Amino acid sequence: RRFGLSLDAQDPSIRPAVDNKLKGILAKGGASKVVEMAALLGIQPNYARDWHPEAVACFNTNIKSRADVTELKEIERIVGFRPATAEWEKQVAGKYRSLLEDEKLDTLGELIEYTGITPDFTGALWKNLLPLMQRSLLAKNDAKIEKLRTVTGIQPWSELSWQHIACATESVQKLQSAFTFLREKYSKESDDIRASVWRAFDNALPTLLKTRQYERVQQLSSAFGWTPDGKILSHGIRQWIMEDPSKALADIERIDSQDTMADFQEIISRDPWCLALRQLKKYQAPTSNSAYDPWQTDLKPLLVQAKREKMISPDCDEDAAVLVKFVR
Questions:
Q1: pTM for the full model?
Q2: Which of 131, 193, 238, 289 would give a disulfide with 314, using CB separation of 3.0 to 4.6 Å?
Q3: CB atoms near residue 271 (< 10 Å)
Q4: Residue 1 pLDDT > 60, yes or no?
Q5: In this predicted model, what pLDDT tens digit does every residue of 110-133 receive, in sequence order?
Q6: C-alpha span between 71 and 76 (Å, rounded)
């Protein structure tokens, strides 16, 4: 126009080049620019039919970079459709993950509402959500806790999160403080919160026992008024015995020596396998030199082999007496 020239964009000899240029701009996220240029050139692209891949790419470009819902709505208005492809859903899911990691909860909520794609918060996104939820709870961050609840639909006292928290390294005192905070903030759900957290501890108990965190179990019991399941406690202790009877004996004696281990002491005082272990100690106590310790050289391999070949079972009370008789 500056030089008094004109361009017929409909000319078959140049239209392919014009389309390719505009498609490239569109794919890179320039939907508004394409509209401006198309109007200048006097062409009306059929985005849904002829430029569909580039239009979808425009959505994907926005998602990867900004995830600006206002822009996404404008792109949809221009091209006349919203993507419904597997690639689009993959891009959206990836953006959900990065927004969680960056703690951009407002943007996440807007994007969920716009796309209509439900995030898998308790599945694929759980490992991204959990650290944020845990930090917010332990810091008693009121605003972030409520925002997480609104955006994810997951209650801050969910069993999944508290099961993980129970096994984490944070002090029980800090957990108790967060628990009290929740019950005060959501006073109407106070009983539900307590029940949910207790169930979470029930679910965490086998893991805590497997890693021999018996002191933490007792602390959780005392701080939260939670009563560990006696059968699970007994099963966990028996697994210690099967894996390493000498170490199990040391743990049992340590538990017995502490005034704060009532839940475990009750189990130990009457469990047939614990009583059997003490009976075996009367015949031959463990020694400090593991190379010559019969508990390590004889008893431990015996238990491992007998359990593997199903000659004895830690779940069978009578087998404890059988073991003692055999060793004697």
A1: 0.78
A2: 238
A3: 21
A4: no
A5: 999 999 999 999 898 999 999 999
A6: 9
